[in-house]
Design a protein that fits this description.
A 4-stranded antiparallel β-sheet has the order 4-11-6-9. A 4-stranded antiparallel β-sheet has the order 5-10-7-8, with helices on one face. It is built from 17 helices and 19 strands. By secondary structure, the protein is of the alpha+beta class. Helix 5 packs antiparallel against helix 6, helix 5 (123-136) packs parallel to helix 7 and helix 12 (304-313) crosses helix 13 (315-336). A hairpin with a 2-residue loop joins strand 1 (6-14) and strand 2 (17-26). It folds into 4 domains: 1-65, no CATH class; 88-194, Serine Threonine Protein Phosphatase 5, Tetratricopeptide repeat, CATH 1.25.40; 201-336, Jelly Rolls; 345-454, Jelly Rolls (Sandwich), CATH 2.60.120.10.
């Protein structure tokens, strides 16, 4: 980032490396310089061809009789191939530049490092390196921005050693007084607090309100298991047979990629209840994700049959487990939502804390009447919300389906909507408290507010 805009490196992906096309400057209004179109890309390829051709050895004389058939295409292809063979991978070039450490090499590393941000697994480390480069180039404001971004990446994964390293660098950069009020310090303290072990399973939110009789009955059925770092608790697609509560440590939630491999969608910290599908999904329930210990961790295990008996005896307990499943579903939706996915995990967790209630409607029900400032915003978990003008004419003017928001912007800005929002029968809606959402916006950076305003 530079000032109030961005410098974006655009490359053409080739089988053995990236071909540099342009470094675009994008101002806060979205205007790009230079203008990038098809002709510009073709010119970039030709420039690369000319550069590589000047370095390539001349062809042997015995090949000269083959003439110039497909000369232009062949020259373009060979030029790209020579360029790709000539250049080392970006990671190697960055490492070489950093080892040299002189200003020119550091500026070269500055230009190359943004190309490595495409790898989500290494993004935090890349941002931290970018901050270190800017510190050496005497650009403290740029370094601070990269450090904050790196800290958010580490916070998303609860990578405490890396987060503490970023915090130490931030402390050195801004000084003790400024650091205490910084976003990096706040993120570090929040992450430390979330990793505090839970004393007993009955301190977990879902189990807190169990009656003394039920506690005494269920406690002998609970086992405590310790897992080593990278040890898998359950795998995606396996039979779901237990409910788990995290006592200490950290568990990653990993999903299978369609193209193969896995990606981590979030971390679960002490107090989280997992595996609720085992007691809520009829017939052959399956694990919806892989749960893996990211450090030495402890987890309480309760067999599904024991949980079902407890839920049958105490319906309020069953309701809390069902609400936990809905919250986990919403959390997964947040992680994969095109807009919400731009926010780090801390902000998404705060958004979840704004949920006032989850409610299912058996008949048509007015949720947000027309011409009134909404006190809640809605996320449709199941079913649909219909929008009507002038009271309730025969046909709705719009429909809000599952996994879609409604009324967020009006709730944030206290605007009275011109239409009525009515839940259809068998619709489940998560209601977000408008006052809490506004408070979240008031204490959040501008980009967070912009994301929330776009919801729905």
């Amino acid at each position: 980032m530079a000032g109030d805009g961005w410098v974006v490196t655009v490359v053409l992906a080739a089988p053995s490396g990236d071909l540099h096309v342009a470094d675009l400057s994008v101002d806060e209004s979205g205007a790009m310089t230079p203008k990038l179109d098809g002709d510009y890309v073709v010119d970039s390829v030709r420039r690369a061809q000319a550069a590589s051709a000047s370095l390539a050895p001349p062809p042997p004389d015995e090949l000269s009789d083959f003439g110039d058939a497909n000369e232009e295409d062949d020259a373009l292809g060979s030029g790209l191939d020579n360029l790709e063979m000539m250049e080392d991978p970006v990671e190697v070039r960055v490492e070489t530049a950093l080892k040299k450490g002189d200003p020119a090499s550091l500026r070269e590393a500055r230009d190359l490092l943004p190309r490595l941000l495409i790898d989500p697994e290494k993004r935090g480390g890349t941002l931290l390196t970018m901050a270190e480069v800017e510190i050496k180039l005497a650009e403290p404001m740029l370094a601070k921005g990269y450090l904050e971004a790196a800290a958010r990446e580490f916070g998303d994964r609860f990578d405490m050693p890396a987060l503490e390293k970023a915090a130490a660098l931030g402390l050195e950069l801004v000084g003790k007084e400024a650091f205490v009020g910084s976003s990096i310090h706040a993120l570090l303290e929040e992450s430390r607090a979330r990793l505090r072990p839970v004393p007993t399973i009955f301190d977990a939110r879902s189990f807190q309100q169990l009656s003394p009789v039920m506690r005494a009955w269920i406690e002998p059925q609970i086992t405590l298991r310790t897992l080593a770092p990278q040890e898998v608790l359950v795998s995606e697609g396996e039979p779901s047979q237990n409910v788990f509560v995290v006592k200490s440590g950290l568990f990653g939630v990993w999903l299978e990629k369609p193209s193969g491999g896995q990606w981590m969608v979030r971390c679960c910290f002490p107090g989280w209840l997992l595996g609720e599908s085992s007691v809520l999904v009829p017939n052959d329930p399956r694990c919806t994700a892989t749960l893996r210990a990211e450090r030495v961790s402890e987890v309480w295990t309760v067999p599904a049959e024991i949980m079902k008996k407890a839920m049958n005896k105490e319906p309020e307990f069953a309701d809390r487990i069902a609400q936990t499943k809905q919250l986990h579903r919403i959390d997964s939706f947040f992680s994969m939502h095109e807009t919400m996915g731009q926010l780090d995990v801390q902000v998404r967790d705060e958004m979840l804390s704004c949920i006032q209630r989850l409610e299912t409607f058996d008949e048509e029900t007015i949720l947000l009447p027309a011409n009134e400032v909404p006190q809640v915003a809605c996320l449709v978990a199941r079913g649909e919300i219909a929008l009507f003008e002038d009271g309730k004419p025969d046909a709705p003017i719009g429909v809000i389906g599952a996994d879609a928001f409604y009324g967020v912007r009006d709730a944030l800005h206290q605007i009275a909507g011109a239409v009525s929002a009515i839940a259809r029968p068998h619709t489940t809606v998560a209601f977000f408290d408008a006052a809490r959402l506004r408070a979240l916006c008031e204490r959040s950076p501008e980009h967070v507010v912009a994301v929330l305003e776009r919801l729905g």
